[in-house]
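HUMAN: You are asked to prepare a plain-text protein record giving the amino acid sequence and the C-alpha cells, both parts labelled.

ASSISTANT:
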Amino acid sequence: MRRAALIVFVSAVTALATHAQQKPSLADLKTTPESTGYKSTSTYEDVVTFMKTVDEASPLIFYTTYGTTTEGRAMPMRWSERA
C-alpha cells in the first residue's frame, strides 16, 4: 500500500515539474487591458511580469532594466536581437 502511494506521489510531482518547465505560448499572452476587455490598466507589477513572461517564451526577446526611478523601482526594457 505504501509503495503504491509513493508511486502516485512521485508521478504527481513529476507531472507538476514537467508542466512548470513548459514555456508559455506567445500567442496566448495578454496584457491586463487585453485580458479585462480594456476595463483595467496595467500596474507596474503587471508590466514587469508580462515582460518577464515574454522573455521566458521567446528566444528573441530579452528582459532587462535601464535605470531606477526616483521611487527606487527598476525601469524595465525589452530588447530583441535580430538574427
